[in-house]
Design a protein that fits this description.
It contains 3 helices and 7 strands. The protein is α/β, with parallel strands linked by helices.
């Protein structure tokens, strides 16, 4: 519980909040001056004493021999670099759904994820989606597996198998 983790990236806010539950300290590195996340989560971060937000910073380098010891953060405005002691670095640059195969054939959200109902059915009959390509998915293996099971049961029912 004594670890300090640097969480870096434009999609790192939710991960920082999650990691703060298991780490002594989380350093959230953002390359902009404000957090790009929904208001509810953004308002909780300052209240969490385990999370330190470092706005307008990018990772210049990571130091350490056999293990990570520091992350070197460069200020995007002043170009000054400071060493921040950490035990690890978690990079989260976001997600790009691999939905090109169905683009134009099923309804996608504005960011490219496939829209489904609770049975994993898409806007097109007999086409199902499961896991990380689905809008609203939690992007975790266990939920992807559950989505796949629901989609398989829905498909079997639709073709008369169940």
């Amino acid at each position: 519980m004594g670890m300090t983790i640097a969480v870096v990236g434009d999609a790192a806010v939710q991960e920082a909040a999650f990691l703060a539950r298991a780490s002594a300290r989380v350093v959230l590195v953002q390359d902009r001056d404000r957090l790009c996340v929904h208001q509810a989560l953004q308002s909780r971060l300052p209240a969490n004493p385990r999370i330190t937000v470092c706005p307008n910073r990018v990772v210049d380098s990571i130091a350490g021999d056999d293990r990570v010891t520091d992350v070197m953060l460069r200020d995007t405005a002043t170009v000054n670099v400071e060493a921040v002691p950490v035990d690890g670095v978690f990079v989260c640059r976001g997600h790009v759904p691999n939905t090109g195969l169905v683009r134009g054939q099923v309804v996608l959200d504005p960011t490219g994820y496939i829209r489904t109902n609770s049975q994993m059915q898409t806007s097109r009959s007999h086409v199902y989606a499961a896991g990380e390509i689905r809008f609203g998915a939690h992007r975790q293996l266990v939920t992807a597996a559950a989505d796949g099971a629901v989609a398989a049961m829905s498909a079997a029912r639709d073709v008369g198998g169940v």
